[in-house]
Design brief:
8 helices
């Protein structure tokens, strides 16, 4: 079973992890600073930073899934940016399609289920189904970084439910991990400097990078326990 403990420890103890968290947090901090100043450059910078962050998570998932002895990517920002850009190009269409279909289905269902409680249940079911397709596509891509892998319909159909269940279990574990590492340090910063403060913002930026590493690691474990099993079952059947 996927372990958030392993993801937490290996992301924290990775080679040069602290230096990488500091360096990778700088663009995030700069983006937040631009937002606080209502700077016109914010939207352009945030787009670049988003691609970088996506590239970091993909690199982490790929490294763990392929058995590397490290989690975080190298210091090569250009390689990370290219990974994020290529990943968005690969996964973007399935994200757009699933979002569009989920919105249409939910809009259709809203005309039949007028009671708020029942509609909320249907929203969760529909969006959960399509989000699972998106995440399965991400996992298929992140293993070999091949765009064609994203659109393996059989894998999407067979593994998406298991992937979604794995993500459901991941969310509370990630929240607990953040409470352990971010909560006490944030409290200390609040006592000495107050919040918001540049030190707090930079620390939270580092926490964001850490979370991307931890989630990327955990998703690689989900891939190994779901998609790989379905592929092995297929091979054995053949």
């Amino acid at each position: 079973m996927a372990s958030i403990k392993d993801a937490f420890q290996e992301s924290l103890q990775d080679h040069n992890s602290l230096i990488k968290y500091i360096i990778f947090a700088i663009p995030v901090y700069y983006c937040v600073d631009l937002y606080s100043k209502n700077d016109i450059l914010f939207w352009a910078v945030s787009a670049v930073v988003f691609v970088l962050l996506f590239g970091i998570m993909i690199k982490c998932t790929t490294n763990v899934r392929n058995g590397k002895n490290y989690v975080l990517p190298t210091f090569n920002i250009f390689s990370i940016f290219w990974s994020g850009l290529k990943g968005l190009i690969a996964i973007g269409p399935i994200i757009a399609l699933c979002t569009w279909l989920a919105a249409i289905i939910c809009n259709f269902l809203s005309s039949y289920f007028t009671e708020p409680g029942s509609m909320t249940v249907w929203y969760f079911i529909v969006w959960g189904l399509f989000v699972s397709f998106m995440m399965t596509g991400y996992l298929c891509y992140s293993r070999n970084l091949k765009i064609s892998d994203v659109y393996n319909i059989k894998i999407l159909a067979n593994a998406s439910v298991d992937v979604f269940i794995g993500i459901i279990f991941m969310i509370p574990q990630v929240l607990i991990a953040n409470a352990i590492i971010a909560g006490p340090i944030t409290y200390i910063i609040w006592l000495f400097f107050g919040i918001p403060h540049p030190i707090a913002v930079f620390f939270w930026s580092m926490c964001l990078i850490f979370n991307l590493s931890m989630v990327g690691h955990y998703l690689a474990q989900i891939d190994y326990e779901t998609i790989s099993i379905h592929e092995k079952e297929k091979d054995n059947f053949i």
